[in-house]
Amino acid sequence: MPELPEVAGYRKYFEKYALGRKIGSAQVKAPRIIRGITAGQLEGELTGRTFISTLQHGKYLFAQTDGAGWLVEHFGMTGGLRYFEDHDEPPKFDRFLIVFETGGALSYVNQRMFGWIGLTADPAGLIEGKGLGPSALDPGFDYGEFKRIFSGKTGEIKAALLNQKLVAGIGNLYADEILFQARLHPQAKIIGLGEKELQSVYRIMREVLRTAIETNSDIERLPPKYFLPHRKKGGGCPACLSVLQTVKAAGRTSYFCPRCQQENSPSR
Ligand SMILES: [Zn+2]
Q1: How much distance in Å is there from the Cα of 179 to the middle of ligand 1?
Q2: Closest CA to 176 of 240, 264, 245
């Protein structure tokens, strides 16, 4: 599932292949992924425009055009982008296609179609309207704001990290990595966390997401002490070699080390 680091990769990819290029045609292949506008309107608005800049907020990618506002792309569970040349076959699960005037096309692919595409004049307004929290790597999102958002919450830490209305961009995988590195059980109650623990969650959240972007979201290239390469049935903890366990937290299967991430750790 694309989380903030994957979408950062899509943003780079979008910029590489689409920025500064005039749109010859836009083709909606799966009308059910289009929101807030009809497929025909979207195609008409985009044709003849040029993409001039991009923006990311959490799991959202925005691409500004010279006159039709911003294209909005959310990737859901299985979305991504694929560029291909005119002589190539369109990729599998092609749902929305931008064909460039000078040749080549950028496909929004999405097998399960949980994501969506739209057009907005105002990305900040859309983000606010959806009630999204700050993007997890936003330069202005400092510890003070993180603390203001998280302290006093009654729920579990994993659920809070996944809640896009508190902080935008983290999904199931990176939440497990963050909690492992912070040595917190996925079901730990926020209210039971001390200042130092909250600080370490914030610091680790930023570091994990940055590292994931640097490694191009390639789990195998993460540093050796990272959790994600081991996050599977029967996997061993990279710190103590204990066999990892799973628990449902926020309705999601969460992996954790029963030794390093104890529910009632002595520090609480
Ligand atoms: Zn361990």
Answers
A1: 12
A2: 245
